[in-house]
Structures are given as C-alpha cells and as structure tokens.
Amino acid sequence: MEYIYFLANASLTLRIIDYLEGVTDFQYPCITVMHRITGWLIRIKFDLPITSEQDKNFVAFLSELGIKYEPECDLKVVFESLDYGQSRLEAMFRHKVLIVSHGHSERASVEDYCQKYQERLGYCP
Q: N- or C-end of the chain: fewer Cβ atoms within 10 A?
C-alpha cells in the first residue's frame, strides 16, 4: 500500500514520522520525504498489507495534516527509481528533485535539512 500526501511544512512531516514510529502495528514502512518550493511531499509505502481498519485510521490521520497527492509522471519515475534500488543521491541528480530522506523513518535527516535551510535563509521551511 502506498500513500502520498502534500504537506505545508516540516513540522507536519515530522508528526507523521513520529506517528509511524509510535504505531507498532505497521511493519517497517518505507518513507520518502521530498521538499519542494510549494511544500513537502511524503510517500509512505508498506511492504506488508495493512487491515482496512488500519487503512481508514491512517488515511484519516494523514488527511488531518495534509492533502492526498497524485504525483506527476516525473515524480512517479523518481519513486520507481528509488523502489528499484537507486540511491537517494543518484535519484536527486538524475531527476533534479530534492529528496530529504528515503527508507525507514529518518527524523534526524528532516531536522538536519531544516536546520541547514534555516541557517542559510533565516526561516524554517
């Protein structure tokens, strides 16, 4: 199962990561976090199926924080590249996107990115 949502800021992205770390029912989701000029994209992909009840609860939680997002063709190619084992850096250079983290929940990567962004531009994305 795959969920892709558009979020307004980094703190909402971190809330989703914290939620996934706290829920023991979900088995190791793969999380991809991208920063764009207009906001943040987060993709959560579960390798193992989740129940319909878990799906409903998770969609409700995600919908409170962001907007369901249907990626354009170029972003679908980026996600496929990552799924087939291309590294985050290779995908960034090849497809000209900014991937903050990819893999299991990496709160530290998002926080580090925000800190560097804030040091350079003076505000948190």
A: N
- Rounded distance between C-alpha atoms, residue 84 and residue 23, angstroms: 27
- Distance in angstroms (rounded) separating the CA atoms of residues 92 and 124: 21
**CA angle (37 as vertex; 99, 122 as ends), nearest 5:** 95
The predicted-structure confidence for 3-50, as pLDDT tens digits, reads as follows 999 999 999 999 999 888 887 677 778 899 999 989 999 999 988 888
- In CATH, 2-121 is 3.30.70.1950: yes
Q: What is the 3-state secondary structure (H, E, C) of the chain?
A: CEEEEEECCHHHHHHHHHHHHHCCCCCCCEEEEEEECCEEEEEEECCCCCCHHHHHHHHHHHHHHCEECCCCHHHHHHHHHHHCCCCHHHHHHHHCCCEEEEECCCHHHHHHHHHHHHHHHCCCC
Q: Global pTM?
A: 0.89
